[in-house]
Amino acid sequence: MAVHRTGTREEWDAARAELLEREKQLTRLNDELARQRLELPWVPIDKPYSFATDAGPRTLAELFDGRSQLLIYNFMFGPEYEAGCPVCSSIADSFDGVLAHLAARDVTMICVSRAPIEKLLAYRGRMGWRFDWASSEGSDFNFDFGRSHSPEQVRSFLDGGVPPQVSKLASECGTDAAGFLEEGPGLTAFARADDQIHMTYATTARGVEPLMVYYAILDRAPLGRNEGDPSEPWFRRHDEYPAT
Amino acid sequence: MPERTIGTREEWEAAREQLARLEAAQAERGEEIKQRRLELPWVPVEKEYTFDTEDGRKTLAELFDGRSQLLAYNIMFGPDYTLGACPGCTSVGDGLDGALVHLQHRDVTLICFSRAPIERLVAYKRRMGWQFPYVSTYGTEFPFDFGLALTEEQASGSSKVREMVENPPGWLEEWSQQVGAELKDGLREAPSWIAFARENGTVYHTYTVTAPDPFVAPYFSFLLDRTPKPQPEEPRSWRKDEYPG
User: Fold this and answer.
1) How far apart, in Å, are the Cα atoms of B23 and each of A207, A216, B19, B208?
2) pTM (2 d.p.)
3) Closest among B31, B110, B100 to B70, alpha carbons compared
4) Which of A152, A163, B160, B200 is the most buried (most CB within 10 A)?
5) Contact call for A105 and B39, based on CB within 8 A
């Protein structure tokens, strides 16, 4: 590691003050985005969906668990996977500890994946998580919300070749690139009132990055993310890091 | 709650597309800021500090636990707090444990600091079920040197603090009851993140950020920003084992 530019306290203070102005602008933009998110129209969801859970079959309305807001993390764990996606697993590590705070604010947060419920529950047991996990196996849910893709769609993504990161993640999930890419990550929000459900917000790709708590922390660390260029995927399941 | 616009999937897609452009612009600004953050000069820490930890006395260099980077969240829990740490800071703490192992493998040690004595921190950590190392800055000059706490003189000399002590909004009065401290004492702690690097035996201070930066907010506020309903304007927080109702 090269020695970083060093300075006096006064030099740091001056550079920090300049950076703070930019950070404040970003905070204001963040507030504006939060406001605009609330202005998105709500889309009525009238199609019935059924999910398998550890407590038996559940409708979408029942997944709210009595609250008026539902956040679904679309966890990449397809029918062909032997284990959940390592990146999604690190996201689950991030939110599993704060479920009580969300519940107290009338928000139920769960994961939905397309693998059979038995596989999901076994993996949840291995990872020590507490969130509720529902299986959308055999349901149109993941396809209707753009989280799962048909083999034909996947073939068209793969026409240009398989990126090495995809092959690596696929093999870590015990599947091949085609099986792995049938699933995509996402966060989808729903509201429920008077027995009517609405979809209110959805995001994917870089939009789920704020769910990775370690990235927010690394972004304030002395060396930042330090992932190399091009960046090397470094995260593993929390029980698969080599011992230090 | 304001009236909702109900729309078709196509109307939602169109509005979402517009919002996505703003989200992308924000992400781009975030990248620029990250780059500038890495360009801040590192300031050598020349003073010796020793802290009470769960494993005895440790120097600042020892808090790195063999890694090259140290990130600490300063939980507002002053020596005068009789009922525990600030509930908002406690909520930040609740979001950290899931990151520990991933950060360790990026050469980053994550800890929390507070100014209350170590016995109180250990008891509170047990109550909250936390895993991260919790370090007391009690009796050191460290929090005053790095802007993590105000001395009594600084607090009484600050017009901002005086205004909050003399005319506290309702939520702040409740906060004072939640922590069991008078505001004149309770407001001496700063909710902040602080970062240090260690290289060739020298420790460098690299970064500090204090509320109201969104990073100095509970992890779950990112999620609440994406739920259907707006969040209350006032920053009321509760410890996870003390929610009303």
Assistant:
1) 8, 16, 6, 26
2) 0.95
3) B110
4) A163
5) no
